[in-house]
Write a structure and sequence with these properties.
Blueprint lengths: L7 E2 L8 E11 L5 E11 L10 E4 L5 E7 L2 E2 L5 E4 L2 E4 L5 E10 L9 E5 L2 E5 L19 E10 L5 E4 L2 E8 L4 E12 L6 E4 L2 E8 L5 E8 L8 H18 L7 E7 L6 E2 L4 E5 L12 H16 L8 E2 L5 H19 L2 H20 L11 E2 L8 H18 L1 H15 L3 E2 L1 H12 L8 H4 L5 E9 L4 E9 L14 E8 L15 E5 L3 E7 L6 E4 L8 E3 L4 H10 L3 H24 L8 H12 L5 H7 L5 H7 L5 H29 L10 H18 L4 H13 L3 H12 L4 H15 L3 H12 L6 H8 L10 H14 L1 H4 L5 H16 L1 H7 L1 H4 L6 H15 L6 H10 L1
Parallel strand pairs: 2-12, 18-19, 19-21, 22-24, 25-31
Antiparallel strand pairs: 1-23, 2-3, 3-9, 4-8, 5-6, 5-9, 7-8, 10-11, 12-15, 13-16, 14-15, 17-18, 20-21, 25-26, 26-29, 27-28, 27-30
Bound molecules: (3S)-3,7-diaminoheptanoic acid and zinc ion.
The site of zinc ion has 4 residues, from α3.
């Protein structure tokens, strides 16, 4: 291999030696190549100590440099040097204009970074370091510039030409059949927020008046065949804009806000100033083609990107180590928005499930890193659950410690003080400290220490003194580069349940109290407690920790039925199920017949009978912990035992409670026209869950019921719910028939067909790998489209444990081959595919050896991208 990529460190940060006051760009888009002309007004940064530094511009190796001039003087090749990603110009004055002409080939860009083609259109993705694939620039977030962009292209094929800001001029070059539009963005921004779109696009439009009375045009663009799938995104956008005005006092600032849907996209969406670019999967929605979960995802992602206009764009990151400054805060903002729009408790359950399943696993693996990483080789590898979801939990903890009023004051101060600046997570915390008068210095460790803290809680009760004590001990396991951890500042929200299940009054008469843990060991004493209470610990999941408290099954059942904290009621049920599933796993491993503890059956029966509960919450409570969560909890993952125990429990519950499942299934039948509103979503989620239990009975009558639901459904949630149950059932012929029918119905709906791929990839029956292999040659598959790769390959490797981890290692070989192939085409997607292999330490010895050799084979396969190299080398 060539020279190995080097890590860069937060501690080496230096202010940029040069600034770019204005950036003028002109793009001439053409089939063979695209010309990019740039005019940059530059000067030395007065804040930089290095007064003589040469100008060091970023520019990807793929850029063809055609012309370079400084203040009108054309440079000859002796005046500059290109090396790797750098263009070094030795002698430059203190103030100058840099002109640059670059040739690029977007049609060959399969990495989907910089300017590339998605189907028939041009689009861009510049975060984090994609702008350097467009032209030579200071491609770092602390260099903010005012952009003016002209896009010129063939008028017939690319009638719509978009960039950031407001359109200010347009015209045509009639004899050539070309036209152009100029856009101006008055807000200084880093290059990562630059965007350009050119294509034959349709759009919907809506006027919006901001709280202070400014008129804004909202537009969502897509290919014309998808025009009927944009209304939900538009409604979500309007709701998000109103919410941000009300909850954070933040208004939109340009005359136009645009969203464009593209089919080839590495992630969900991108918050480019005034011109968001979205993966079609995060913007298109219609009842016939989109599930309830996807409707909610669209609402959440549209809001997330909109919220970035303040938390990310107006106030941006100083460097990429600060990524969670914008991502953690914005995820917290979008989670609160979704909680306000839908069910708060359900949203919390979903977020915590993701955190505990996937982020905790990341924290325990070789890529573990702090919310603010100290170093990286490739920044694209750090758009992680830790930076996003754990980062959001860190912001949530500040919210919990300060309370909503002070938190709002803190965010006001942060936005006002830093508007137009590129800042750090420290600046964010400082604003919160200043408004509250609190010292958050120990709290800052959450940004710098990786790993999931563990809390061990024990208690004692002194009946004579009527005193109840909670003893809490915290620790945090070692992570790569961090052996020793200092104690965290942890908000631990608790309640005490008295006999009968009622909350006891705590400090100030409240029923929930936030204890603040700052020491390794601490005891909290409650006086005047007449009887031994049952503690409800970590209410609302007040901190991202693993909590252990010796709780009996009876106590869990008691909390499940009485806890006033909806989240903890659900959590008690999960803990009970985990406990019982582990018992089944032990029985399975010992070769004994498995026997399900009646406690779970009785608890589920009580929940099913309680018609007063929100059906969405009932569905969550009755959902057994996933195989992935059970794996995360295991010291050594026993793939078969987890799968068998869970299947057994599901069937046993179905047998014991079939009457109840059937009764609720029938009572929840759809009434009225489909709407993705909270009430209907709740009903469908519980009804489909009931069907999944009934299908576990493996009876022809239930199969017929599922097939009828599939045939009669007027919406994708019910149709797809039935489809996947039939497809994964033991009724092979019926499974094939329904998959065939589904394909024919939705052949032309790319996103629906992606779900069709995913359902087959996640089928736990033997033979799934052969099917996935065959589907890679299907006309519906395209390895260059990340959505397809995720639907087929990622789903197989992450959501089909029994097949992916087959003892012969065939799953690992399959994945290694795909990564080697993707490494050349799309390093970001290739690197993400690696995740399941990085967890090799958690498996038995034979699997460990097979997974390691798959990783080694990737490492030895030739020239690796920085993305793949970093993850493989850190994992081995
Ligand atoms: N900020 C983008 C993520 C960009 C990822 C680049 N590899 C989307 C978001 O978090 O809103
Ligand atoms: Zn974001």
């Amino acid at each position: 291999m060539a020279e190995q990529p080097r890590a860069i460190y937060l501690k080496d940060y230096q202010v940029p030696p040069f600034l770019i006051d204005t950036t003028e760009l002109r793009f001439e888009l053409g089939d063979d190549h695209t010309l990019v002309r740039s005019v940059l007004k530059m000067r030395r940064n007065p804040a930089s100590p290095s007064r003589q530094a040469p100008l060091d511009l970023h520019g990807h190796e793929s850029l063809e440099l055609c012309r370079l001039a400084i203040s009108g003087q054309v440079l000859s090749p002796q005046d500059y040097r290109r090396e790797g990603e750098s263009l070094l110009i030795r002698a430059v004055p203190d103030e100058f204009t840099l002109e640059c002409l670059t040739r690029i080939r977007p049609q060959d860009n399969t990495a989907l970074e910089g300017l590339y083609r998605s189907d028939g259109m041009y689009c861009t993705q510049c975060e984090a370091e994609g702008f350097r694939r467009i032209t030579f620039y200071l491609d770092r977030p602390d260099v903010m510039s005012v952009f003016t962009t002209t896009v010129e292209a063939d008028a017939r094929r690319y009638p719509v030409l978009l960039s950031n800001g407001n359109p200010v001029a347009s015209g045509s070059l009639e004899d050539e059949g070309r036209h152009w539009v100029t856009w101006q963005d008055p807000f200084p921004k880093p290059a990562y927020l630059f965007a350009l779109v050119a294509g034959d696009l349709a759009h919907i439009e809506r006027p919006f008046k901001t709280a202070s009375g400014r008129d804004v045009t909202l537009r969502i663009y897509a290919e014309s065949r998808d025009l009927d799938k944009l209304d939900h995104a538009m409604e979500s956008l309007v709701k998000a804009m109103r919410w941000d005005e009300k909850v954070y006092g933040r208004e939109y600032d340009l005359d136009i806000y645009m969203i464009v849907a593209v089919d080839f996209f590495n992630m969900g969406a991108m918050e480019n100033k005034g011109l968001n670019i979205f993966n079609t999967s995060c913007v298109l929605a219609s009842p016939e083609t989109t599930t309830d979960a996807a409707f909610q995802r669209v609402e959440g992602v549209v809001a997330h990107e909109y919220f970035h206009n303040w938390s990310g764009n107006r106030v941006t990151c100083r460097d990429w180590f600060q990524l969670s400054l914008k991502e953690g805060f914005t995820v917290f903002r979008d989670a609160e928005f979704s909680a306000d729009m839908n069910s708060r408790a359900v949203k919390r359950v979903e977020d915590v499930t993701l955190l505990r399943t996937a982020q905790f696993a990341e924290d325990a693996g070789p890529m573990a890193h702090p919310v603010r990483p100290a170093s990286f080789i490739e920044i694209s590898n750090f758009y992680t659950l830790t930076v996003y979801e754990k980062g959001a939990e860190v912001v949530r903890m500040i919210h919990t410690l300060l309370g909503p009023e002070l938190f709002r004051k803190g965010s006001d101060l942060y936005f006002e003080r830093h508007d137009g600046q590129a800042v750090t997570t420290d600046d964010f915390v400082r604003a919160m400290e200043e408004v509250s008068g609190r010292d958050l210095s120990q709290f800052r460790l959450w940004y710098d220490q990786a790993g999931t803290p563990r809390l061990h809680v024990s208690d004692d009760y002194d009946a004579a003194a009527q005193r109840y004590s909670l003893h809490v001990e915290q620790s945090c396991p070692a992570t790569p580069d961090q052996a020793e951890k200092k104690p965290f500042h942890i908000p631990l929200a608790i309640g005490l349940l008295g006999p009968g299940g009622r909350d006891l009054p705590l400090a100030g008469g409240a029923t929930t109290e936030v204890l603040e843990l700052t020491e390794t060991k601490q005891t909290f004493v409650f006086e005047g407690v007449a009887e031994r209470p049952v503690p409800s610990l970590l209410r609302g999941f007040s901190a991202p920790v693993k909590l252990q408290y010796p709780c009996s099954r009876d106590e869990r059942v008691f909390l499940m039925s009485h806890d006033s904290d909806g989240f903890n009621r659900w959590d008690a049920g999960q803990a009970l199920a985990v406990d019982i599933l582990r018992e089944l796993m032990d029985q399975y491993r010992a070769g004994r017949p498995m026997q399900l503890d009646c406690a779970l059956i009785d608890a589920f029966a009580a929940v099913l009978d309680d018609e007063a509960l929100d059906p969405a919450m009932v569905a969550k409570v009755l959902t057994l912990p996933s195989e992935a969560y059970l794996s995360e909890l295991s010291d050594e993952i026993d793939v078969e035992a987890i799968h068998e125990a869970r299947q057994f429990a599901k069937k046993a519950l179905a047998q014991a409670l079939s009457g109840r499942f059937e009764r609720r299934y029938l009572a929840l039948a759809p009434a009225g026209v489909y709407a993705p509103d909270a009430v209907q979503v709740a009903r469908r989620s519980l009804r489909n869950l009931c069907l999944s239990y009934l299908m576990a009975l493996e009876q022809p009558a239930q199969l017929a019921r599922a097939r009828a639901q599939y045939d009669d459904a007027d919406n994708m949630t019910d149709r797809q719910g039935a489809l996947s149950l039939i497809a994964h059932s033991a009724f092979g012929a019926e499974a094939d028939a329904v998959l065939e029918d589904f394909y024919r119905r939705f052949e032309r709906e790319t996103l629906v067909i992606n779900q069709w791929l995913a359902i087959q990839a996640s089928d736990p029956k033997p033979g799934a790998l052969a099917r996935v292999d065959a589907l890679m040659k299907h006309e519906a598959f395209d390895i260059r489209n990340p959505n397809k790769v995720r639907s087929l390959i990622s789903v197989f490797c992450n959501q089909n444990a029994v097949n992916f981890h087959a003892a012969d290692g065939a799953g690992y070989d399959f994945l290694a081959d795909r990564i080697i192939e993707m490494n050349r085409l799309n390093p970001q997607v290739a690197s993400r595919l690696l995740t399941p292999l990085t967890r090799w330490r958690k498996y038995d010895a034979p699997r460990q050896a097979l997974m390691q050799s798959a990783l080694q084979r990737i490492l030895d396969s030739g020239e690796l991208s920085k993305d793949v190299y970093e993850v493989v080398s850190k994992s081995l």
